Amino acid sequence: MSPVRFLTGITTSGTPHLGNYVGSIRPAVRASLSPGVESFYFLADYHALIKIDEPARIQRSTLEIAASWLAAGLDPEKVTFYRQSDIPEIAELTWFLTCVTGKGVLNRAHAYKAAVDKNTASGMDPDSDVTAGLFMYPVLMGADILMFNAHKVPVGRDQIQHIEMARDMAASFNHRYGEHFVPPQAEIEESVATLPGLDGRKMSKSYDNTIPLFAPREQLKKLIAGVKTDSRLPGETKDTEGSALFQIYQAFASEEETEALRKSFADGIAWGDAKDILFERIDREIAPMRAAYEDFMAHPEKVEALLLTGAAKARAIATPFMAQLRSAVGLRSLGAAAQTQTTKTHKVALASFKQYREKDGQFYFKLAAADGTVLLQSKAFESGKAAGQAIAQLQRDGATGIAALQTQLEALDALAQSSATQALAAMAEAAEKK
Ligand code: TRP
Hints:
By secondary structure, the chain is mostly helical. The protein has helices at 18-32, 45-51, 55-71, 88-98, 103-107, 110-121, 132-147, 160-177, 217-225, 244-252, 255-266, 271-298, 300-329, 384-404, 414-433, and strands at 4-11, 37-44, 80-83, 152-154, 185-187, 352-357, 363-368, 374-377.
């Protein structure tokens, strides 16, 4: 069975804080280690441009977020970790999706609607200070997800509407041009609580109540000393209910540790002592990662290299898939004119696979166009069965199959790749019609 594909993006507009760690980084790193999943994590820097027009801040945030995820244990060998803007296919796909998305649908997007409502309430022009970037936000996000045909998208509740819109985009595109996209699903982590911030409200950059994930030890201690408590004195029983300090502790501690603190609250622990316990517990988890983080921050070139490797991995999928999509919508080489024109009425001469054995005793196959042009040439396989399985994979997965089998195929240039992709798509379409 092919693995379940998870994908999520992190907007590069700030410095990761403990709330991001507990709510997103830690669960994502854990999930990426489970068997049977394939994960894609990316830095959503195109999205950041919607909110931020300070170039240095975008760059800084990109480094901080990448360094944080890597320090927290994301393994770039195991997952595909990349920067959105390194994948130009995403921008191109955004345009394709723009052309199948109703403007009225985007009018109803929460973030855009909130901006309009705010303007209207203050008697301004409804679209005052609203960029088309904000309006198009959901389409860019749809392209992020559909580019890699992700099945599951782990996000916060505020993003559910965007995933639903991506499903709609997938459906409208498929309806017009054939089955290319998998409808994605939002994956909401029910068990992960939102972390309260210094003032007890949800920890969030917009409330200015955050604790940076990799604050140096001394600063972390100071910040934790500032977590809001009530005015009960040492010896008085403290409430765990509604205590930000207790909730933050719970997000890091084991069940036994949490029970022990609950008992200390009942026994009237002094707030200062409770804060020391909280600080030590958080630092125990973060300290080993902090060293790695500081090393990445001191060597941005290491992070850059990892991201470029990730981009190459992502593009091995995105480039051939985009070629398939371009062909599907009719952006085709004129030389191949009418070749894959809808098979509805015309019978098209299809390409076909030929499997054979060479004198060396090894097994090979090629994909040849109707006129005999070789579109794909395999390298040697030890058995006919292995060659047959590779053919089946290409028939089933098209462009994704080509990417997956790269090392078993003779090198393809972009043009050959695009013809092969078109031929496979046409064959799949014809097979489906039978
Ligand atoms: N909009 C998401 C957020 O603010 C970030 C994001 C961008 C994203 N593209 C995505 C999340 C694709 C999941 C999938 O949290």
